[in-house]
Amino acid sequence: MAQEQKILIIDDDPGIGDMMQLVLQFNGYDIIVSEKPDEAEDIILTHQVDLIILDMLISGINGTDVCKRLRDNEDPEIANTPILMMSALHDAVKKCKKAGANDFLSKPFEVDDLLLKVKELLED
User: Fold this and answer.
1) Labelling 82: which of 13, 39, 100, 115 has CA 20 to 30 A away?
2) Residue in 44, 45, 60, 56 with CA at minimum distance from that of residue 16
3) 44-61 pLDDT, tens digit each
4) Does residue 2 register a pLDDT over 60?
5) How far apart (Å, rounded) are the C-alpha atoms in residues 58 and 37?
6) CA-to-CA distance for 7 and 114, rounded, in angstroms?
7) 111: domain CATH number?
8) Residue 15's domain spans which residues?
């Protein structure tokens, strides 16, 4: 099991963010939760984040735009950090992959699905 790997969760729904934080911390991950996608780059550099879990719609901001911005960043530590995007929209998978997401998780999701995707992305 991965230990001390840092995961940044960017989601403006406190219920989802808190639930993911509890589940992932229980499974040995170090979690940072932010409701502000504009802080992503600073958090990644400050905390050496290993994975980003990003909601597709955050406080009116399109998560795919955030994903593209991260992928286009000149700093390889930011541009190469794996991104798992989430959405309740059934047609979001292609948009998220096109934006540069490594994987996608449909909302609502099963905890086992979240843990499997996190493990797979951190092992790559």
Assistant:
1) 13
2) 56
3) 989 999 999 999 988 778
4) no
5) 7
6) 12
7) 3.40.50.2300
8) 6-123
